[in-house]
């Protein structure tokens, strides 16, 4: 088994086909979207492939060390063009193929009009095991 | 004897060890060890005097631990002198423990962890699980807290205000896994109110009971938030509400008002209403005035503005809100609600979306997003049709 990180982006990923801000969906579409993701996580818990998932608030800033005795430099809140992570899910799966398959499924979460949002997800293997290792 | 009853003995046992001359950290360790042994042995061989058994076992552990240390002779000497005070009220010891665990030298997070362990008798594993951190992290936090307290005398009087704040922090976490922290905080507040003369301790207990009684109605089965307006009030625990109100009334009768009593009074007025419309908003605003006077808290002012919007009209609420810093938590959500009530649905939709971005939790984010979506749908803003509302998903 190998662990993979599925990264969801607010911004920074290519624009998905069904790109409508969530506040302009209907309340039912919002609920359906949330439900889809919960069902997805629940299913992975049953198959033993779920490790962890967290959502991140959009509030964040870039911060950097600025030399001894000085307060850290901040580059201010994330700007429009910067990459912005919305959250992640960690899965532990048999193969790289399976990780891609699940990412594809998660990306099919419904959005405006009930159609899949085709959200781009970043899939990153954890170090420590060969990505194709199987047991 | 079940685990809960066992946990209740812990403050008393730690208290006895400290009175006999053990320092707090060592006493706490010894009692945890004795507890593990008790869980193992008692199933087969339950003791006649559980507290006595625990004291003996913990004292033995403590003596074993210090036997090799230089300080042994001195400690045992002191123990001999202080033997005489044993048997003094267990209540006093418990109160001292509350003060010690809420010592101002500790960070709030450390004070919470230490209180749950030393007064609440939870294991490090249970506390870690409740706060969703690894057990090793919580163990570090607790031992660092105990190091901070090394040298603090056990019999110094503490400030009950600190203790109440710590208990309210525990209550507000409220995770429900192996340990429901809200229920645990209520148990500890009840115990505290029994041993301390303080209307505010009663006020806090009442406040917790009044909030806790409404908990079943606050979320749907799948975890979505239900705002007060839409809650099924038949799900509220009326017995617990009556209990909270009785405690509050007794406290208020002493005429020494404090912030927890004022907050409890507000909670009681909500709990007393059959619907949002029937709520006595005028009185709620008056209690918020008291709360602002007592605490000068911007959050109290924000809540007062929302209540004023109900008691008078939404414009009055918006005016009061306008005097506050827009960066306050929930400022946008409150403004959205008031704008909608004032009939300005476009502003309300924009503000709900803004509030969603700044929400403190996912259920809150989803709730606010649905509010924005509801208004935008009603306004006929077709998906993707552009307009002034932009932003990330």
Automatic annotation (TrEMBL), chain B:
<dbReference type="GO" id="GO:0003677">
    <property type="term" value="F:DNA binding"/>
</dbReference>
<dbReference type="InterPro" id="IPR046531">
    <property type="entry name" value="DUF6596"/>
</dbReference>
<keyword id="KW-0805">Transcription regulation</keyword>
<feature type="domain" description="DUF6596">
    <location>
        <begin position="161"/>
        <end position="251"/>
    </location>
</feature>
<dbReference type="GO" id="GO:0016987">
    <property type="term" value="F:sigma factor activity"/>
</dbReference>
<dbReference type="InterPro" id="IPR013324">
    <property type="entry name" value="RNA_pol_sigma_r3/r4-like"/>
</dbReference>
<dbReference type="InterPro" id="IPR036388">
    <property type="entry name" value="WH-like_DNA-bd_sf"/>
</dbReference>
<comment type="similarity">
    <text>Belongs to the sigma-70 factor family. ECF subfamily.</text>
</comment>
<dbReference type="InterPro" id="IPR013325">
    <property type="entry name" value="RNA_pol_sigma_r2"/>
</dbReference>
<dbReference type="Pfam" id="PF20239">
    <property type="entry name" value="DUF6596"/>
</dbReference>
<keyword id="KW-0731">Sigma factor</keyword>
<dbReference type="Pfam" id="PF04542">
    <property type="entry name" value="Sigma70_r2"/>
</dbReference>
<feature type="domain" description="RNA polymerase sigma factor 70 region 4 type 2">
    <location>
        <begin position="98"/>
        <end position="149"/>
    </location>
</feature>
<feature type="domain" description="RNA polymerase sigma-70 region 2">
    <location>
        <begin position="7"/>
        <end position="70"/>
    </location>
</feature>
<dbReference type="GO" id="GO:0006352">
    <property type="term" value="P:DNA-templated transcription initiation"/>
</dbReference>
<dbReference type="InterPro" id="IPR007627">
    <property type="entry name" value="RNA_pol_sigma70_r2"/>
</dbReference>
<protein>
    <submittedName>
        <fullName>Putative RNA polymerase sigma factor</fullName>
    </submittedName>
</protein>
<dbReference type="Pfam" id="PF08281">
    <property type="entry name" value="Sigma70_r4_2"/>
</dbReference>
<keyword id="KW-0804">Transcription</keyword>
<dbReference type="InterPro" id="IPR013249">
    <property type="entry name" value="RNA_pol_sigma70_r4_t2"/>
</dbReference>
């Amino acid at each position: 088994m190998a662990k993979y990180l599925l990264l969801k982006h607010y911004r920074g990923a290519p624009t998905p086909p069904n790109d409508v801000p969530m506040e302009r969906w209907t309340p039912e579409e919002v609920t359906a979207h949330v439900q889809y993701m919960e069902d997805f996580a629940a299913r992975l818990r049953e198959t033993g492939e779920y490790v962890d998932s967290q959502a991140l608030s959009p509030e964040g800033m870039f911060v950097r060390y600025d030399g001894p005795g000085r307060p850290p430099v901040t580059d201010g809140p994330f700007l429009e063009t910067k990459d912005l992570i919305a959250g992640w899910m960690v899965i532990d799966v048999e193969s790289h193929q399976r990780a891609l398959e699940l990412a594809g499924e998660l990306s099919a979460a419904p959005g405006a009009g009930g159609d899949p949002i085709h959200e781009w997800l970043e899939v990153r293997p954890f170090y420590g095991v060969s990505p194709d290792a199987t047991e | 004897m079940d685990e809960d009853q066992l946990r209740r003995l812990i403050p008393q046992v730690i208290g006895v060890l400290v009175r006999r001359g053990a320092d707090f950290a060592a006493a706490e360790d010894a009692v945890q060890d004795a507890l593990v042994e008790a869980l193992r042995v008692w199933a087969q061989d339950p003791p006649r005097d559980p507290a006595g058994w625990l004291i003996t076992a913990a004292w033995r552990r403590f003596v074993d631990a210090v036997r090799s240390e230089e300080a042994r002779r001195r400690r045992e000497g002191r123990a001999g002198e202080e033997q005489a005070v044993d048997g003094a009220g267990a209540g006093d010891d418990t109160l001292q423990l509350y003060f010690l665990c809420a010592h101002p030298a500790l960070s709030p997070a450390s004070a919470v962890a230490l209180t749950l362990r030393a007064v609440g008798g939870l294991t490090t594993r249970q506390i870690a699980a409740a706060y969703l951190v690894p057990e090793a992290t919580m163990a570090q936090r607790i031992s660092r807290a105990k190091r901070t307290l090394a040298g603090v005398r056990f019999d110094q009087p503490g400030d009950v205000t600190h203790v109440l704040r710590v208990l309210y922090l525990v209550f507000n976490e409220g995770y429900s896994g192996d340990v429901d922290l809200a229920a645990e905080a209520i148990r500890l507040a009840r115990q505290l109110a029994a041993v301390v003369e303080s209307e505010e301790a009663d006020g806090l207990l009442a406040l917790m009971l009044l909030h806790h009684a409404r908990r079943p109605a606050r979320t749907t089965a799948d975890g979505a938030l239900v705002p007060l307006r839409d809650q099924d009030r038949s799900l509220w625990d009326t017995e617990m509400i009556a209990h909270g109100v009785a405690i509050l009334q007794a406290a208020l009768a002493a005429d020494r008002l404090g912030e927890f009593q004022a907050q409890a009074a507000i909670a009681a007025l909500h709990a007393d209403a059959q619907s949002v419309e029937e709520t006595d908003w005028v009185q709620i605003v008056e209690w918020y005035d008291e709360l602002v006077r007592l605490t000068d808290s911007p959050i109290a002012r924000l809540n007062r503005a929302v209540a004023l919007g109900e008691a008078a009209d939404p414009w009055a609420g918006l005016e009061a809100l306008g005097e506050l810093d827009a960066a306050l938590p929930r400022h946008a959500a409150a403004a959205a609600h008031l704008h909608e009530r004032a009939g300005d649905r476009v502003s309300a939709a924009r503000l709900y979306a803004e509030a969603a971005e700044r929400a403190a939790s996912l259920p809150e984010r989803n709730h606010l997003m649905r509010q924005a979506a509801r208004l935008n749908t009603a306004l006929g803003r077709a998906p993707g049709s552009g307009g002034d509302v932009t932003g990330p998903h």
